[in-house]
Amino acid sequence: MPSAPRGRLGKRIAYHRSVARLTQKQLADAADIHLGTLTKIERGARGASDSVVESIAAALGIDPSLLLADRAQASSRIKAAIPALSAAIAAYDVPDDTPVRALPLLQGAVAEAVAWRLAAQYVRIARQVPELLGELFRALQAAPPQHQPDVARLVASACRSADAVAYKFGAHDLSARLIDLMRWAAPHADDDILNSVVAYVRTETFFAADAHAQGLRALEVALDSAASPGSAAAIAARGALHMRAAVIAGRAGDVHASDTHLREARLLGDQVPEAIYSGTAFGPSSVRIHEVSVAVSLGSEHVHRALEVAREWAPPPELPAERRSGFYIELARAQLWSGLPDDAFESLKVARKIAPQHTRDHQWVREDTATLRRLKRADAESLTSFAEWCHAT
């Protein structure tokens, strides 16, 4: 099993342990490793396997990427896991006959994968979800009729977590296959809300292909067939579709449609508390974040809207890390376009602090950091270090 390099890993573990106010013994106990092992890792006398790093990170309540921050180490580990993910879904309809866990245990495992996705913890997803998907495909094939809808929902949810890795790391063909598997599982669940979730996620394929007008049409079709907003979950599902439609309409340059869908999302967001509904964050704060997304999507004279939102509001910490970091990444682009390079760099640093994996591998972060370097050649150290970290050219 591969091991993480010694020196800097040990220093990072010691730093985060001190931040958490834990002794070495307390951390070793929480991570279920020997105290001597942790002592040697911290002083650089030995490396640590992936499983040990993940156990320590879980005990510290942080993502493993914060411990594996040497250049592209976390990213390379994720990319190395992509073939295993592809292999896991290749045989979705002909799974092997090895045993599967009971439904409550599978539900717990999928809930954990959802939490990792919302927190942008892609290392954990890449390492754990391929095997989980294989188990879920077996479970769906073997499930009695009364349990099939529950298992089908778990399959769709796990595929969505896997898709977060595939899409964020540029494996768009694999992402499309995972979304197709979500669409395959949805009829087995007989769940109108899940159909809306799948339509929401499917929009990634249109973003990847720059097919914005077509993506808008697909979302509007999904809205026509969405469940009536008679419950908080149904309201959130419809509202999330409007949020995404507003953004892709902006990318298509359709100002009227963008404003209309954003207005509908705002009305629905005011009807429910901010929360995670069927795996998607929705509520007033999520809609506010999408106001920034829409402004950046429309560009040009609309960018000032993003700055106006940021002047009076910031994402609360209870929002998922991926969504909060996305806010600052898009705000940075608005600030850069508005002639505020220093503010843009500060926003990128905030995004990095919130969700390092999501930020480092975001295309806009690389593009905007490269632009900042061209604009500020005299500013050296921190900007150069950031550019090296995210591989901006």
Tell me what the structure shows.
By secondary structure, the protein is an all-alpha fold. It folds into four domains: 1-70, Orthogonal Bundle (434 Repressor (Amino-terminal Domain)); 78-190, no CATH class; 192-302; 324-393, no CATH class. It is built from 20 helices and four strands. The chain has helices spanning 7-19, 24-31, 35-42, 50-60, 73-90, 103-118, 122-142, 148-168, 172-189, 192-208, 212-225, 232-251, 255-269, 284-298, 304-312, 321-337, 341-354, 356-360, 363-375, 381-390, and strands at residues 3-4, 48-49, 275-277, 280-282. The strands form two sheets. Strands 1-2 form a two-stranded antiparallel sheet. A two-stranded antiparallel sheet has the order 3-4. The protein is globular, with a radius of gyration of 22 Å. It starts with a strand and ends with a helix.
What's the layout of helices and strands?
Elements: E1 3-4, H1 7-19, H2 24-31, H3 35-42, E2 48-49, H4 50-60, H5 73-90, H6 103-118, H7 122-142, H8 148-168, H9 172-189, H10 192-208, H11 212-225, H12 232-251, H13 255-269, E3 275-277, E4 280-282, H14 284-298, H15 304-312, H16 321-337, H17 341-354, H18 356-360, H19 363-375, H20 381-390
Specify the structural class. mainly alpha
Strand content: under 5%
Cα shape: globular
Compute the number of strand runs.
4
Number of domain units:
4
